[in-house]
Amino acid sequence: MAHLIFLFVILINNIFFIECQNQITNIKPSPINFGDYITIYGSGFDKEDFVLSFSNERGKYLFQGVDMVDSNTILINQENWNIEQFCGDGQISYSPVLGESSFYPVTFAYPFVQFLHYNAISGLITINGTFTTKYPIYLRNYTFVDPLEPSSASSEQLIFKDYPRIVSGSASLQIDKTEYILPKRVYTNYLATDLVFIPIKRESDIVVVEGKYLTYDKHGVPQYSIGIVKDDELPKVYSCRNIVSTFLGNQSYRVTCEKDIYGKSIRWLFNHLFNGFSMSTVIPYIPPTIISVSSTFFNEPAVVTISGFSLCPSPNITIGNSSCQVTSSDDWKKGKLYCMFQSDVALVDNQPLTVNVSCDDNSIANIITFGTADIFLYSQDECYIGVNNLVCSGNGTCTSNKKCQCNNGYSGSDCSIVSTVPPPPPIIDNTTAIIETTESKFQIGIVQIREMDIYNKVFKSYNLTDKYQRWELVSNENRYQYVYGTTLKNGAEINVQMSINNNSESSQQHDFLGDIITILPNSIKYQIEITKWKSNSSLNQIQLIFQTDISSSVNQDCGENLINSEKKVQMLGDTIRSVELTLVNGQTLVGTFSSRMHVDGRVVQSQTKILSDEDSIGIPSVSKKNKEHNQASFTSVTFNSFNEKVIIDPNFGVLLKDYQISKCNKFANWKIAVIIVCGVVGLALIILVSLLVYSRFKNNSKIISIRLKMKNFTK
Fold it and tell me: Greater confidence, 648 or 671?
């Protein structure tokens, strides 16, 4: 029995040996990339009379450049191949003339591409052919930031979803280490489309075009040229220099370049270098935009200065439908035009006149562009009368241009402010300005914004000093300028810019829409911008509320007399012009308010008032701690519902008075907080302008003198 088993094993071994004598046991490398030497390992290879081939779904192909090293090793050199035959997944077979063939599976990374199509509607790139899917596949292009993987892949078809930056030039397939240049471009009907020439400022050297497939190569070089021509200088073409293409997404690009010419009939010449596509169109200009206009006196002809942008050298200007003859346009590129206005159009209900600037520099398209602004106001026809009912408060002279020229030691638009000692700078704490002495402290800031309905009831309000209302320091360029921002629960945004006038000795005159406001030494200037406010009704009004909080920790021997006060209110029409709050120790709080605002591009009359105790209920304080003696005064600036933005431009300052007061004041030089609220102004009006309200009659200021005893608030 043992002999039979032994014989069976011998027979089996002999059979195994006979079947495997020409067997392929391994092929390297795997996968096989373009240019690789292929090594076939096995046994029993016969150097004479054999065929070595590769077969796949497409057919069977014989190898060239075969080198039989020995009976166990075969080398294949790819140099003389038709490489498109050896692609995808298949098998290599060794077939001797006598004996059985041996097969071994292999993968060629090299693809065979039979068909390529790009569907611009579906955004799909389809490539048919023969491919291996066992290894990563990528579509590459000159402008790909990252390689693109197929959304669907089989051995016969690859589908790629349109990559945002597949734009121009030849693309390639990369499978493993093999990169195959596709036989035709990805975009067979490639064309720049949807070109939009963005309107530009006339003074700008930068021109802009947006559109799809405004391509650039892998080095960032645009695939097109842009020229500029003037119709009266044809055929001369000016080059648009420094072309920069920026990808916007969804095959769209923004292109900018620099021009050196201006003219009434300037055209773009767009030429795509890749496919010959070209077009020409007129460069559009932004309509003239008016930021500010200087004032004149009614019935006194004078030159008016118009400030803005996208102005033109030969404009037609009217003010209140009355012609304003251009006297000079040399500075139009700097945003200035000058014209002679007869000042012969009267205001109606003190509403500003409409200024119109028109340009015909798009005449080739029969377009006349114009810009308008309801912004012109006449200068006040007399100097301000102080609270003592004297012109310039009796402390200055009225000049020919109806401005008070104050005597030494006095300042302010009506020369009512005594200034003898330089004040210290204020302290900035978040959006609050703090003025502090040994025994007293002034805290000034914005505390609330609220919407009022037609019945003057609070519809909604937001406390700006609430600990949950977070203010972020947006920027702090230097120790004289701070910008804070916050977002309300209703989505509205408020930005507060605080700038310190660091001149410790001299006052400055701030010309706000023609209203001269004194900016005190070491004053704090606020600029408050409100945007994205959605009113419940267009009939509702919004109030921004400021507070001055005065606290004292003086000796109880002084009792409450320290904050007894006398309040004087000067009215200009139905709005507050100024407020003087004088404490019994001679310390005075002065507030001066502009008579006008600028809301959504319109100049309107201001509405400023001191809130009563009843109206002040529920308004928080800027003060973070209770003092032994505390008094708060709230002032509101009210404006109608708006669409775009409102910017309020108040100023807060201090003065020192150089005289002795009661023994309760342990210091001789006391600080006087002065609030100057310039009203609501558009952001573009950072540049000071010169506009004054015209009044046909003399300014009959209403003086109200009220003796008040302010409430004490104790701990």
Answer: 648
Confidence of residue 656 (pLDDT cuts 50, 70, 90): very low
Residues ≥6 apart with Cβ < 8 Å to 350: 573, 605, 693, 694, 695
Mean per-residue pLDDT, 177-187: 74
In CATH, what is the architecture of 23-108? Sandwich (2.60)
The Cα–Cα gap between 494 and 488 comes to: 8
Q: Which residue from 497, 523, 499, 298 is spatially nearest to 412, judged by alpha carbons?
A: 523
List the domain boundaries for the chain.
23-108, 112-181, 193-282, 289-376, 392-709
pLDDT higher at 275 or 672:
275
Structure-token pair, residue 666: 């342990």
Q: Which residue has the higher pLDDT, 274 or 229?
A: 229
Q: Tell me the percentage of the chain whose pLDDT exceeds 90.
A: 18
Q: Which segments of 57-150 are extended strands (E)?
A: 59-62, 66-70, 73-76, 88-96, 102-108, 112-119, 124-130, 137-140
pLDDT of residue 704: 28
Amino acid at 520: L
For the segment 384-421, what is each residue's pLDDT rounded down to a tens digit?
A: 787 788 889 899 988 876 778 888 878 777 787 776 55
Query: b/e per residue, 221-244, with b = 16+ CB within 10 A?
Result: ebbbbbbbbbeeeeeeebebeebe
Phi and psi at residue 563, to the nearest 5°: -105, 15
Give the pLDDT confidence of 348-398 residue by residue, as tens digits. Answer: 877 889 999 998 776 445 566 888 888 888 877 778 787 788 889 899 988
Beta partners for 604? Answer: 597
8 Å CB contact between 121 and 189 = no
* Domain 193-282 listed as CATH 2.60.40.10: yes
> Residues 685, 690, 691, 697: is their CA dihedral positive or negative?
positive
Which has the closest alpha carbon to 111: 90, 134, 88, 83? Answer: 88
pTM for the structure as a whole: 0.53
User: Which two structure tokens, joined as six digits, stand for 512?
Assistant: 């706000």
580 contacts: CB under 8 Å, gap ≥ 6: 387, 416, 567, 568, 588, 589, 590, 591
* Whether the bond into 31 is cis, omega within 30 of 0: yes
Task: Tell me if domain 23-108 and domain 289-376 are identical in fold.
Answer: yes
pLDDT confidence tier of residue 544, bands split at 50, 70 and 90 = very high
Whether domain 289-376 has CATH 3.10.25.10 = no
Closest by Cα among 505, 528, 510 to 433: 528
CA 295 to chain centre: 33
